[in-house]
Design brief:
Layout (H helix, E strand, L loop, with lengths): L3 H16 L4 H4 L1 H8 L5 H22 L2 H4 L2 H17 L8 H15 L3 H11 L4 H23 L7 H22 L16 H4 L4 H34 L7 H10 L1 H11 L5 H24 L3 H17 L1 H10 L6 H26 L14 H12 L8
C-alpha cells in the first residue's frame, strides 16, 4: 500500500490531466466556428453537450453502482482512455454541429468516470482531513478546466489541432498513472452485487439530502460563470474599446485562480466547520453575481479583471466542501455512487443555467446576464442554513 502522502499528489495530477478534456472545446470554439461554419450559439450548445454527456454518464455509473463494485482506478483509466479518444476526433475535417455535439457528449459521458471517481478514490484513502484532500483534488479540476485556455493563449505557436492532441495525451497519461500507481484505498468498501435502490435510498438520509441541495445551488452558478468568462471579457474589451486584450489568457487566469480558493477552503475546513466555510464562499459568490453589472461598466481594467478573479476564487471554493459533506453523510458502501448521483443532478442544473445565459445574451446587454446566476447561491444558502437541523459530521 502506497503512503497517503504519495498517493494524493498522484491523484491530483491525474485529475488535472484528465479534466483538461472538459473545456478543450471551449478554448478552440472560435476555431471550430470558423472551420465548420457554425454560428455563435455553438458555444452554449457544445458546452451543454459535455454537461449532458456527463449527466447521462453519471446517471448510468450511479444506477449500476460501477465505482462501488469495481476497482475505481480501473474505471478511471478506461474512462480517461475513451474520453481522450473522443476528444482527439475533433481534428477531423468533415464535422457538422451534430457530429461535434456527439463527440463532446461522449467526452462528458466518460468524464463521469473521472471527476466523481477521483473524489471516490480520495475518500477511500482519507477520512480525517477529507475536506483538505478534496480541496486539492477540486483545485486540480479547476486547473485542468482552465488549462486549454492557457494553451489557446499561445495560438501563434500552437494550432487548435495541437491543443486537441495535447489535452488528449494528457488525459491518457492521467488515466495510466491512476491505474499503475493508485491501488484500492484502505477505507474502500464494496457492494457485492448490483443494487438499484442505492440511487434513491441515499436521499433518505436528511443530512446527505440537505448537503446535496446546497451543492445544486452552487452548480447553478459555477459552470455558467466559467462558460461565459470569455464572453464577458470579450464584451468588456469591445465596450471600452480596449486593444491588445488577451481574452484567452485572462480566461485562464480567472478560472485557474479558483484552485487557490479550493485549497484555502480545504485548509479552513480543518479549523472551522465545513458548513460555515461553504456558507461564506457561497455568500460571497452570490454577491459577485449581483455586483457584476457595476463592475462591467468601470473603465479601470485592473478593477474589472481583479473583480472577476475574486469571483473565480469564491465561485469554486465551496465545491470541495460540498463534496466532503456529501461523502461524509453517505453510507460507506455506496459512497462512490452517492457522489456520482449528486454530480449527475448538479450538472443537469448547469445545462439549464448555461442555456439560459445563452438565450439572455440575445435579449439584453452582456453585463446584465450574470444577475440571474444569483438564484443558485440563494437556493443553496437556504439549504445550508437547514444543515444545522440535521445530524451531520460537518
Amino acid at each position: 500500500m502506497r503512503p497517503q502522502k504519495i498517493v494524493l499528489p498522484i491523484i491530483v495530477f491525474a485529475q488535472f490531466c484528465c479534466t483538461s478534456l472538459w473545456f478543450a472545446g471551449n478554448a478552440i470554439m472560435s476555431d471550430l466556428i470558423t472551420q465548420f461554419g457554425l454560428d455563435n450559439a455553438a458555444l452554449g450548445h457544445l458546452t451543454a453537450s459535455v454537461q449532458f454527456g456527463f449527466i447521462v454518464g453519471t446517471f448510468l455509473f450511479a444506477l449500476f453502482t460501477l465505482t462501488d463494485r469495481f476497482s475505481p482506478s480501473k474505471v478511471f483509466f478506461v474512462s480517461a482512455l475513451v474520453g481522450a479518444t473522443a476528444n482527439v476526433f475533433l481534428v477531423l475535417e468533415t464535422h457538422t454541429l451534430l457530429s461535434l455535439f456527439m463527440l463532446r457528449f461522449f467526452v462528458g459521458f466518460f468524464l463521469a468516470g473521472i471527476y466523481p471517481v477521483g473524489m471516490k478514490i480520495a475518500s477511500d484513502y482519507f477520512k480525517a482531513g477529507l475536506g483538505k484532500s478534496l480541496g486539492f483534488l477540486v483545485g486540480a479540476l479547476v486547473l485542468g478546466t482552465a488549462f486549454p485556455h492557457a494553451l489557446k493563449g499561445f495560438q501563434h505557436v500552437i494550432s487548435w489541432q495541437a491543443l486537441v492532441y495535447i489535452t488528449s495525451g494528457l488525459a491518457a497519461l492521467g488515466g495510466l498513472l491512476m491505474l499503475l500507481l493508485v491501488p484500492n484505498g484502505p477505507y474502500r468498501t464494496t457492494l457485492q452485487r448490483f443494487d438499484g435502490t442505492v440511487f434513491y435510498n441515499v436521499f433518505k438520509v436528511k443530512a446527505f439530502r440537505i448537503a446535496a441541495f446546497g451543492y445544486f445551488g452552487h452548480m447553478w452558478e459555477l459552470y455558467a460563470f466559467w462558460t461565459f468568462v470569455p464572453v464577458i471579457l470579450g464584451a468588456y474589451a469591445k465596450y471600452h474599446a480596449i486593444l491588445n486584450f488577451d481574452v484567452a489568457l485572462l480566461s485562464f487566469s480567472v478560472i485557474a485562480i479558483g484552485s487557490i480558493g479550493c485549497i484555502i477552503s480545504g485548509y479552513m475546513s480543518q479549523v472551522i466547520r465545513t458548513k460555515t466555510v461553504a456558507t461564506l464562499a457561497l455568500t460571497l459568490s452570490g454577491i459577485c453575481c449581483l455586483v457584476s453589472p457595476f463592475a462591467f461598466v468601470t473603465g479601470n481594467v485592473f478593477v474589472f479583471v481583479g473583480f472577476l478573479m475574486l469571483w473565480g476564487i469564491f465561485v469554486i471554493a465551496d465545491s470541495p466542501l460540498f463534496s466532503t459533506l456529501v461523502a461524509q453523510n453517505a453510507p460507506s458502501a455506496s459512497k462512490g455512487t452517492a457522489l456520482t448521483i449528486v454530480n449527475s443532478m448538479g450538472f443537469a442544473i448547469t445545462i439549464v443555467s448555461i442555456q439560459l445565459l445563452n438565450y439572455l445574451q440575445t435579449l439584453m446587454p452582456t453585463n446584465y446576464i450574470f444577475l440571474v446566476l444569483a438564484l443558485g447561491p440563494l437556493f443553496g444558502l437556504y439549504f445550508l442554513y437547514e444543515v444545522k437541523k440535521a445530524k451531520t459530521v460537518a
